[in-house]
Write a structure and sequence with these properties.
It is built from eleven helices and no strands. It is mainly α. Helix 4 runs antiparallel to helix 6, helix 7 packs antiparallel against helix 8 and helix 9 runs antiparallel to helix 11.
């Protein structure tokens, strides 16, 4: 019955299917792609879709299908690490703020406000001025941008849960604060945090594509969907399909992950669960 319930939820099932395809494509690209994503063929530049190159070729004759497949790895890596950074730092801040309270709560929330007013693109520009641009810059900048959402969500959950009867009863029985937080409070915040992480993943993919498009993220010749769109804009009149496939990959991936997040929210919320 537990397995049937998610499968009956159309939004979750469709989002999970798209996410599974994305992960499978990225995994497959480690062992096989139709062509080498970095192999150039000057004589085969800007070809349209064909049996040899189903998605066509770019301005250097590289196979677009192979580069889209390899670009999925970049998107997943940035999404996982950026969300991990945001969740890890944000949850720690939220726990300290929501459980301890007082002046520490006020100081941490003002820090979160300052971070929230500093967009990921500006953070990437700042890091690029100090370090060389690259995928690591994207991960850190996007991860920092996610910290406020996780911190505020965790803080709100802790403020609510620490006043619950089961927490007060555990404290009255002499349970230590670390055990009280780790055993009784934190597990009850996992559902909203999982939903937040799932809905943050497509935002991270879009942000990575934007940073790569601006030249602040993944650098040539490594495959990245945003970088492919940046290159394609100069050849739209010669090869319109060049931009279609990496742009379509971004759109389908973001749609699928958003559907997955919405489905999880419905399934984990008893008020809206089917």
């Amino acid at each position: 019955m537990r397995l049937r319930r998610p499968l009956r939820h159309a939004t979750f099932a469709l989002g999970a299917a798209v996410t599974l395809i994305l992960i499978s494509t990225a995994a497959l690209s480690f062992v096989w792609t139709p062509w080498d994503p970095l192999a150039m063929s000057i004589g085969g530049r800007l070809q349209g879709p064909s049996a040899t190159h189903p998605f066509g070729t770019d301005q250097f004759g590289r196979d677009i299908l192979s580069r889209v497949m390899a670009g999925a790895v970049t998107s997943i890596a940035v999404g996982v690490i950026a969300v991990g950074i945001g969740a890890g730092v944000g949850i720690v801040i939220g726990i300290a703020s929501g459980w301890v309270g007082g002046w520490l709560d006020e100081a941490l929330m003002r820090l979160v406000d300052a971070v929230q007013g500093f967009p990921a693109i500006l953070a990437a520009l700042l890091f690029t001025a100090v370090f060389s641009p690259g995928i690591a810059i994207s991960m850190v900048a996007i991860g920092i941008a996610f910290v406020p959402a996780f911190a505020r969500l965790t803080r709100a959950s802790f403020l609510e849960l620490r006043a619950r009867d089961f927490v007060i009863a555990a404290a009255a029985l002499g349970v230590s604060e670390p055990r009280l937080v780790g055993r009784h409070v934190l597990p009850n915040t996992l559902a909203p945090l999982i939903v937040q992480a799932t809905t943050s993943f497509p935002v991270a993919i879009l942000a990575e594509a934007a940073l790569a498009y601006l030249g602040l993220g993944t650098q040539p010749p490594h495959p990245a969907w945003g970088l492919m769109l940046k290159d394609a804009q100069n050849f739209l009149s010669l090869s319109p399909s060049y931009a279609l496939f990496p742009g379509g990959a971004i759109a389908v991936t973001v749609l699928g992950l958003n559907l997955l997040g919405d489905g999880l929210r419905d399934l984990l919320d008893p008020k809206t669960a089917p």
